[in-house]
Design a protein that fits this description.
By secondary structure, this protein is of the alpha/beta class. It is built from 8 helices and 12 strands. It has helices at 23-30, 44-54, 82-93, 118-125, 150-161, 178-183, 195-200, 209-222, and strands spanning 5-8, 36-39, 59-62, 67-69, 77-78, 100-101, 110-112, 132-136, 141-145, 168-172, 186-189, 203-204.
Length: 226
């Protein structure tokens, strides 16, 4: 089976450990004959810039599925979920000294610096905010709606592109990539990925970070999967 598109995370997947772009991974992504979708927990403007720099512009899933756009100049589809995240943030602010990141650009979730007890925060939210979850992507802490994730984002993006999610190869490294890898037709975890992501992956690269993505693309091409 040949897959018709690829969806890929940015940080930790096409970057090195220090978040510098892997030029090898970027070159391999740019050379593919199939569409490449960027899927990130980061904000839309960052994702657009990264997609342009990599050379795969511009089908983007941003803010962990909360913001979706299928063209650089198109209006994004924005999920209406920020209010419950703001309420959860205000509640937690009564206990923790929280520091927002990228708050000017965030449209569907709240992102915080990792300088507080995340597990205690999860317990405090408990049943009070059942529609909200806290995830740690290793780069930041996200307060997000349970209704959306990169998997739901991929469902919408596939619809916009006239494809099925099973037509996609997905590559990721962290907890926020889980639903995306589960939804895709073929799942790849780079070598630095969380163990539970490796457990569900169809292929796990030996190399880590951007080098792992470069290896994974070579594997897909060698097997005739793309």
């Amino acid at each position: 089976m040949k897959f018709k598109a690829l969806v890929i995370d940015i940080d930790g997947t096409i970057t090195h450990m220090d978040r510098k772009l892997s030029l090898e991974a970027a070159a391999k992504l740019r050379s593919l004959d199939i569409p490449v979708v960027i899927a990130t927990g980061n904000v839309l403007c960052y994702a657009k810039a990264a997609a342009k720099l990599v050379g795969v512009c511009c089908n983007i899933i941003a803010e962990n599925g909360g913001v979706i756009v299928d063209g650089f100049d198109k209006e994004p589809i924005i999920s209406d979920v920020i209010h419950e995240c703001e309420e959860a943030y205000e509640f937690l602010s009564g206990t923790f000294d929280l520091e927002k990141l990228d708050s000017v650009h965030r449209m569907t979730e709240i992102v915080l610096r990792n300088n507080f007890d995340v597990e205690e925060a999860r317990q405090l939210l408990g049943s009070r905010f059942p529609g909200v979850e806290i995830i740690d992507t290793h780069f930041a802490i996200h307060i997000k709606s349970r209704k959306i994730n990169k998997g739901t984002g991929l469902l919408k993006m596939a619809e916009l592109m006239g494809l099925k999610t099973s037509d996609f190869v997905a590559i990721g490294d962290s907890v926020n990539d889980l639903e995306m890898l589960e939804e895709a037709g073929f799942a790849i975890a780079v070598g630095n990925a969380d163990d539970f992501l490796k457990d569900i992956a169809d292929y796990v690269s030996t190399e880590t970070y951007g080098d792992g993505t470069a290896e994974a693309i070579d594997f897909l091409l060698s097997k005739g999967l793309i």
